[in-house]
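User: Fold both of these, please.

Assistant: Here is the first one.
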Amino acid sequence: MIARQCRNLHVGWMLMWLCLAAANAGAQTVDATQWHSGTVHLSENWREHEGDDLAWSKPGIDESGWKEVALDDLGQARWGWRWYRLHIKLEPGHDYVHVLIAGGPGTYELYLNGERAEGAELKSMWGVTRPTEQVFMLPDGDDVTIALRTYAPTMYTLWHFPLFLTATVGTPGAIEDERLAMESQRLYTAIPSIAINLMLILASIGAFALHRSQRDREEYLYLGNYLLLLGVSNGLLYCAVAGLLPISISTLLADPLIYFFTIMQIEFTFSFAGQRVGRIWRAYEIALLPMSILAFLQVAGALSNQLYVSLEAMMILPAAIMLPVVLLVWYRRGNREAGWLILPSLFPAATTALFDIGTASIDVGWGHADFLANPVQLGAVPLQISDMGDFLFMLAIGVVMFFRFTRVSREQTRAAAELGAAREIQQRLVPAKLPSVKGYTIEAAYIPAQEVGGDFYQVFAQDDGAQLVVVGDVSGKGLKAAMTSTLALGALRALAQEGLGPGVVLTRLNRQMVETGDGGFITCVCARVTGNGEIILANAGHLAPYRNGEELQVSMDLPLGISANERYEERAFKLAPGDRLTLLSDGVLEARDPNGELFGFERMQAISQQSAAKIAMAAVSHGQEDDITVLTLLHVPGDSEEA
C-alpha cells in the first residue's frame, strides 16, 4: 500500500544521503583529477532547469539562468520534466573513468558530452523503480559535460522517492566497490521482510495441506488464503522497496490485496470458533471490497496520498480492534478454542494499522507518531513493525493449529472407527437374500445414505406358515442408531417365533424399547402375510403402505420407545391376485432436489406400483438425503413361490 511504501527508506537512503553529503561538503568546483580512494563524489554545483529541450544535452549551452542545486539534496521527486547538468574536469591522459549514478531507473536519461548513454532510459509510470545504482563509462577527453534528462511520473512521486541519491566518478574498481556497498545497503533493510513473507507463503501451503486432509474444516482453507494473500502483498511491497520490481506492481496489486486478506482473516476467525458470520461483519466485508480500487484513484490523481492512508487505516482498524473483542466474548461464553486466537489475532491488522498511522504522521507533519513507520532494530536486523506482527502471528497460529489439527485428527479417527462399526452392523439389518414367500413375489431395495442410518427390514417365518414382514427406521444416525436397530430386530425375531399378531408384536416391542431405550424412537410397520392374500397390519408411526397405487388408511399410532402404555391397532385386508403392497421408509419422500423441492407424496403415489428398485432409484435421482428402503409384495395366483 502507498501507506507502507516508504518502508526502509528512512534507514536506507536517508543514511546514505547524510554520509555522502558529508563527504562532498566544501567542494567549490568539480575537479575530478584529485582522487580520494579512487573516487570523487559529484554532489555539488549541479544546474537545474524545469522543462524539456534536447538541446540542453549539448556541452556549450548557456546555463546562466539555471538554478544551482546539490544532487543529493533535491528532496522528494516532483512531477514533471527537469534537466540537471554538471561539468567535470578529468586527469589528462586518463585511460578510462566510470561514473556511478544512484537514481530512479526509468525516470532519467544520461547524456555525456551531448551523446545519450546506453542503459538509462525513460519509462512509463508502470516501469519505474526506486533509486538503484547504475555505472556508465565516461567518454575520452579531459572535460566532460554530464546532463540528466528527468521525468517523474505520478506513480513515482506517490512513493516520496528522490530522483537521485548521489553521483560518483572514479576508477572502475573503486566505482564497483562503491556500487556493491550501496546495493548491499539498499537490499539489507528489505531482505528480512522479504524472508518473513516467503515464510508466510510457505505456511499457507501447510494450511492448504491441512485442509486437504480435513476437507470439512474450512478454517484451514481460510487461513491458507489469508497467509498467502498477506505474504504476496507484503512480499511484492518489499521487492519494490528493494528495487527488485517496478513500484507499480506494489501500488496496483499488493495494496488491493490488503482488503482481501483482511476479509480472509475475518472468515478464518469465525470458522475457527465455529461461529456464523453475522450481518454486521458481512456488511463490513462487502464495504472492504470497493476499497481495493482506491489505489487506482490515487494513481489517477483523484485521491491524495494523505486521504488514501487515512481511509486505509480507518477501514482495517475495525478488524484489528473488534476481532479480539468478539473472540474474548466467545471465550467467556464457554468457547475455549476461541481463547486461543485472542492474542494471535491482535498482531497482523493492529501492527499494519499502527504503521499506517505512522506514515500518515509523516505525510501530514504531525511528528509525534512517525516512529511507527520506521524499522525496529533487533540487533543488526531491521524489521518493520508490521513484519513483526505478521511473524508473531505465524508463530502463534502455528502452535494453535498444531493442537487444533491433532485434536480434530483424533476425533476423526474415532468417528471413522465408529462409522465403520456402524456400517458393519447395518449390513446385518437387511437380509442378504429374501426368503421365498408362498403366494407372493417379494422385492426389496435398500440404498444407504452417506452416513449410516437406522433403516431395516426383515421377513420372519412363523410356525403356521405365515410370514411377518417388518420395515422400520430408527431415529438418529451412526453407531447408536445401528445398535438400536440390531436390538429391535433381535426382539422381533423372538416375538415372531411366538406366532403373535402385528399389534401384539409392536406392543411388546414398544415396552422393551421404553425400558431399554435412551430417548430415541423407532417407526415401524409390521404385516402378517398368508399365502391366500390375507394381510394383518399394524403401524407404529411409520409411513402408510400403498396398495395398487393408493395409500392405505391405517392407524398412525405412536412410534416405538415413547410411551410404554401404547397399544397398536391392527387392520386386516385381503390382496387379490395381481395386487401390489408397497412398504417404504421416509428416505423416499424426503429426497430433495438442488432447488429444495421434496420428492413428496404425489410423486410417490404415481410410481407406487413400480418395482422396489425403480422406486428407490427415482428417489435417488431426485436427490437422496437419507437411507432409502422399499419393499414390495405382489400377490400371485396359485401356489407359486418366488423371491
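And the second sequence with its predicted structure:
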Amino acid sequence: MPSVHESFFDHVIARLFDFFSSATPWHRGLWDLGIVLTLKEILEASEAVDAGILSEGALKNLASTAMALAGPDPGAGGDRQKKHLQETLRTSLRYKSVDYLVIRQMAEEIEENYLGRWSAALTRETDSFRPERTARSIASHLLDGGFSSDFLHRWLSSKVRRKGLSELASIVTAAQMLISEKARSYRVMVAFQGAPQNRSELPQNWVNATQVALWLRANAFDPSGISQNGGLWLELNARDPISAVEAAVEVIDRITARIAVGRNAQLKVLQHAWIDGQKRAFSLHRRRRGVEIHALYRENRLYPAEETSIVDAAIELLAPLANSSPSAAVAGGWAAIEALLGPHMEGEKVLAGDRMATIVACSFPRAELTPLSYTAEEGGGALAERLRQCTANRDRAACLVAAIKSGEYFNLPNYSDVAALSRIRDLLARPYAKLHDIESHVASAFRRLYRQRNLVLHGGKTDGVALRASLRTTAPLVGAGMDRLAHAWFAEKVPPLELAARARIRLELCEGTGCVDLLG
C-alpha cells in the first residue's frame, strides 16, 4: 500500500500529465490561469479601463480573482508579502498610479521566484497543500509562461524517475530552472504552393522554390514529394519548437488575411513547416482547442435542417472557437454564449457567462462518472458485472455512485483515474460546496473570455497578454456547455434559458436531489 507521501506525489504527477495532455477531456482539464499571468492581465485591464474599453467592474472582478488565487499559494510569497498584495488589489488600480506600479513590480518578483518557493514549501511539508491545487498551480505557471503542452508532457516524462516527496520538490526545482531560461530564437521555414506577388519585390525573408528544395535536401528531408514554389523564413522567439510553430501559424494567419483583402487572392500554404536545427517536420495546422458538441452526432444533427433555430445559429457562431485565429475565436465564442443566454448585465455580473457556468457545473458529475464507470468495469469484479447490466450512461453513473458511497474497492489502472475518483468522493461528500466551487471557477473563465472579447472588438488588441491562455482554458468549457444546450434543444426542445433556470434550481438543491442527473 502506498504511503501518504507517495499518494501525494502520484496524485500531483498524474494531474500534471492530465494538464499537459492534448487528449484530456474538459472535466479533467485546467480552467484557471496562474497568479502571475492574472496580475499581468490586471495591468492590461487597468490600461483598458483608462481607455474606456473595459469597465471598472471588470477590473474589480479580476482583482478579486487574483486575491483568491494568491491567498493559499506559497509561490506568491510569505504572509506579509501576500497581505500587501491583497491590500493593493483592493485599491482602484488606476493606470500608472503607485498601486498599479506596485502590482507590476510584485508580479515581476513573484514570476522570478514562484516555482522556487513551491519547491521549498514541498520540501518542508505537504500537510497544508492539497494535491489538486498544487498541480494546478505548477501547471498553470508553466503553460502561462509560453510552453506548449506537448513539450511539457515530454519534459515531465523525462523527469519522473522514482516516487517520493523529495523527487516532487526536485521536479519543481527543475521546472523553475526551465522557466527561468529566456525564450530562444527559432528559424521556421514555411513553404507555399501558391503565393501572390507583392507590387514590386518579395520580402527579404523570401526563399524561392530552388532554395527551399536545396535546404530540405541539405537537412535530410526529401523534397521530391513536396510541391512548392517558394517560402518564408520566419524568425520567432518562443519557449520550445512546438510553440514556435504555433507562433508561425499566427503569422501566416495575418499574412493570409492581408492577401485576402489586399489582392483578393489566396495564400496556399503547405501542411508542414521546418525548423532550422530540428530533425523532423512539424504540422502547420492549428491545434483544435477542444470544443466538442457530441450532441450533434447523438441527435443526428450533423447536417442542419432547412429551418434553423437559434441553437443552430449559435453553433455556427461557435465554429471559430475550435481552430480559428485568436481574435476570431474569442469573438465567435462569446457571440455564441450571448446569443443563447442573454446579453444582459447586472452590476458586475456577466449573466450570459454565469448562466453557462451553472450549466457546465451541473454537467460535471456525469462527465466525470461516465468514463470512470467504463474504467471500473475493465477492472473486473462484482461492480463490473453490475455495470455491464446497465443500459444507459445515466444508470452506469448511478451504479458507480452507489458503489462509491458503500466504500466498495475499485481496481483502477492509473493515477489519473484514482485522482478522478478522489474528486468524485469529495463531491459526493459535499455536493453543494463542491459544485458551487466548480461553478465559480468556470464563471471566472467565462468572464475572462468576455474581457478578451472586449479587448479585441472594442480595443483592436489582438495580442493581449491572456488572450491565448484564455482560449486554452475556456474553449473546452464552452464546448461542454454548448453540448448540454444542444442536447436539451434537439432531444427535448428545451430552450436555452429554460435549461439555465433548471440548472440554477438543481445546483441550489443538489444536497437533496443528488448529482447524477442534475440537468434531467
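Residues 4-180 form one domain.
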